[in-house]
Amino acid sequence: QLQLQESGPGLVKPSETLSLTCTVSTGSVRSTSYYWGWIRQPPEKRLEWIGNVYYTGSTYYNPSLTSRVTISVDTSKNQFSLRLNSVTAADTAIYYCARLTMGIDMKLRYFDLWGRGTLVTVSS
Amino acid sequence: DIVMTQSPDSLAVSLGERATINCKSSQSVLHSSKNKNYLAWYQQKPGQPPKLLIDWASTRESGVPDRFSGSGSGTDFTLTISSLQAEDVAVYYCQQYYSTPLTFGQGTKLEI
Question: Which of A80, A109, B59, B102 gives A36 a disulfide partner, CB atoms 3.0 to 4.6 angstroms apart?
């Protein structure tokens, strides 16, 4: 079954850039049926959708983060990535990558497969 | 943004008893022309990522035990576990996909 695995630094300094990569195995990011997304979960807070990317490179972002976030896809490596600029302590969270289903109208739906998540702490 | 509010925040239920978790959206997530509610439920066990249980408010994912059921329409939804098992201890989240940004409820912690 398709699996997703997050990777990247677990500690980022304030004002710097958080960078994570999600590797997709036993499946392809080139699928025409799915988006590939990032969700985060700050300590003791609810899940927050960050954004997602289609294999063509088109993206949707949460308006609350759009000024700081970039999500990209590398089909040759079967990976997609998250960059979040100018981080603060409020960006400390478990970051999940996930597969996002889409309708025939290409609208976003629900997350049917998740990576195990990676904790990123923002601290000097 | 559509705000999702779950109740209660935590719930303790005896083994074999029914557990009921509620989710309310700040606006309707019913697509009237398609007659579909754009709502999903997830289960998150300690140290694990969320797992999709139900989509379209009432459609169980493959492999999800039939003791889990979803109901409701418009703005009010319910996840019911008909006979609680020990392995059902988890935090449960609802999520709307009627509009972006996609938003989640704050979670309901279910304990024995």
Answer: A80
Closest-CA residue of chain A to B105: A46
Size of interface A-B (CB pairs under 8 A): 53
Distance of CA A95 to the CA centre of its chain: 7
Is the minimum CB–CB distance between A55 and chain B shorter than 8 Å? no
- Residue A15's Cα: distance from chain center in Å? 20
Q: How distant is the Cα of B104 from the closest Cα of chain A, in angstroms?
A: 6
Q: What is residue B87's DSSP assignment?
A: G
Q: Kindly report, residue by residue over B66-109, the tens digit of the pLDDT.
A: 999 999 999 999 999 999 999 999 999 999 999 999 999 999 99
Sorted by sequence, the CB contacts under 8 Å of residue A76 that are 6+ apart come out as none
Judge: B95–A47 Cβ closer than 8 Å, yes or no: yes
Q: Judging by beta carbons within 10 Å of its beta carbon (0-12, 13-18, 19+), is residue A90 exposed, middle or buried?
A: exposed
Nearest Cα neighbor of A52 from A76, A75, A69 is: A69
